[in-house]
Amino acid sequence: MTDMKIIVITGAGSGFGKLAAIELGRAGHKVYASMRDLAGHSKDKVEEIRSIASSEGIDLHPLQLDVREEPSCRSAADFVLSVDGRIDVVINNAAMMMAGLTESFRPEQLAQILDLNAISWLRVNRAFLPAMRRQNKGLLLYVGSGITQIPDPFTGPYAASKAAGDVLAQIMGLENSRYNIETVICMPGAYTAGTDHFKHAVAAADPTVADQYGKLAGLAQELADKLDATNVPGTRTDAKEVAEKIAEVVDMPHGTRPFRFEVDPQQRQAMAVAEKANEMRRIFFDRLGVSDLMSVPEN
Amino acid sequence: MTDMKIIVITGAGSGFGKLAAIELGRAGHKVYASMRDLAGHSKDKVEEIRSIASSEGIDLHPLQLDVREEPSCRSAADFVLSVDGRIDVVINNAAMMMAGLTESFRPEQLAQILDLNAISWLRVNRAFLPAMRRQNKGLLLYVGSGITQIPDPFTGPYAASKAAGDVLAQIMGLENSRYNIETVICMPGAYTAGTDHFKHAVAAADPTVADQYGKLAGLAQELADKLDATNVPGTRTDAKEVAEKIAEVVDMPHGTRPFRFEVDPQQRQAMAVAEKANEMRRIFFDRLGVSDLMSVPEN
């Protein structure tokens, strides 16, 4: 297959990551489904990925990569380059969730989620970008969130971490576009089916703070309970939709991919905000003389 | 004076913080100009604040508060409450700057700036919000940045930290509006005069990464050099303008203050993006039934 791409996707043991890894494997790409600890924490997930790969005959491989540790990111990148001689696509996907009244989370918890959901994007990119620049080609795809554009109550640490990651992704994109490295930010909405995101949400360490809020603390639960009820009728509500869109975007010709796309059963319209930002950015960057950094050449 | 407010402003040893502290003192408020280490690192600044307070006869007091340490935030809050019995306004201002190619910063550097510029807002709020909720009144004012809406190249760690802080501020605002606690985010542009922000910018720990970027690394310096040249003719370019606007907003009647305002000699139009976000948020929150969280009652 001529357009077979070498792809690394982080946090591929579950959720969007796993679904996208399978989808991309089925599309004919060589996919490294990276997880943090193949022999330990991720053991069952590794078995599952291996069994899907062998039963479907797709080029899908577990890869050890702990996004919280720079040496682990570096080793994973070196491994891929030694085997395949190149890296075409990196999908920054690994993430954790926290839900609850912001003030009831300890600063250490906020630091933890910022590390996993945002600082990891710098760590992973530092490992793979030098090779992409030498190739003068690459695609950085990020699983961001619509919440970065329109933040909800009771999502403080999570939304802050995704916003930090989003801005990092934007800026690393600007800084690497002259090296023909394209950036795409996927903004999923809240999917309760097909991911462990909400099931594995970490609770606040100081619940007595939330208790000071009286009835408002109840509203958090109320909103969570009616999440599915606020889906727009007729929209798909399975996480697989996100994986399919990711695979579709990866297969678009280089230089024609959207800078962002939204897949959201609640249709919060994060794209409307992001498009306004892009419009104002172009005006400002034209004045600074740097609007050429906003895209890569089509090729 | 009937409308004298008790105000704490962090990072008040220099820049916007110092200027705003003086401005608010002159307006007749009791202002705690907080700094991280009165007897050590902040010693000269303490002397300066004391001398301004005594020569102008204004109610301006240095206060020890290291935004990086929760016990320090708590002790400062307890001190203010023990002396004044209430806290009217908290201005989250303390911040550090980093400038350069994003990839040349180590993950630990990104963690450091996220801690000082964003996690600190949670820390400081956790110390003061319980008292504000008991009072059923308060104002949280944040010195954010226009960069959160339209991020520039070569500002990765800084912009990411301000974006994380911005989203935290928004969400803590939603979560506290029913307690009559108003939130205002100030979005300054880049001021080269009147602040030490750029002079004290921390450099990347791995300059050999930036060296891989060839000519692009030069563009970072070029943009920094022409910062003042991109100011819109006729705009004020002194940081004191920001301090005056902050003082003006503090003195507006409770419930009528803007959720955001921009003061930017470059006029990047961050407000246009923020207003779009607010518009789309209102539509989405109406559907969720929570748009009442977006403001406090006028009183």
The CATH superfamily label of chain A reads: NAD(P)-binding Rossmann-like Domain
Question: What is the rounded distance between the termini of chain A?
Answer: 18 Å
- What is Rg of chain A? 19 Å
How is the CATH topology of chain A named?
A: Rossmann fold
Query: What is the number of domains of chain A?
Result: 1
CATH architecture of chain A: 3-Layer(aba) Sandwich
Output the helix-strand order of chain A: EHEHEHEHEHEHHHEH
- Main sheet of chain A? 7 strands, parallel
According to DSSP, the number of beta strands of chain A is 7
Strand proportion of chain A, as a percent range, falls in: 5-15%
CATH class of chain A: Alpha Beta
Helix content of chain A: 40-55%
Tell me the greatest interface: A-B, 69 and 68 residues
Write a structural description.
- Two copies of one chain form a homodimer.
- The first copy, chain A, contains nine helices and seven strands.
- Chain A has 299 residues and is α/β, with parallel strands linked by helices.
- The first copy, chain A, has one domain (6-294): 3-Layer(aba) Sandwich (Rossmann fold).
- In chain A, helix 2 (43-56) links the parallel strand 2 and strand 3.
- At the A-B interface, helix 4, helix 5, helix 7 and helix 9 of A face helix 4, helix 5, helix 7 and helix 9 of B.
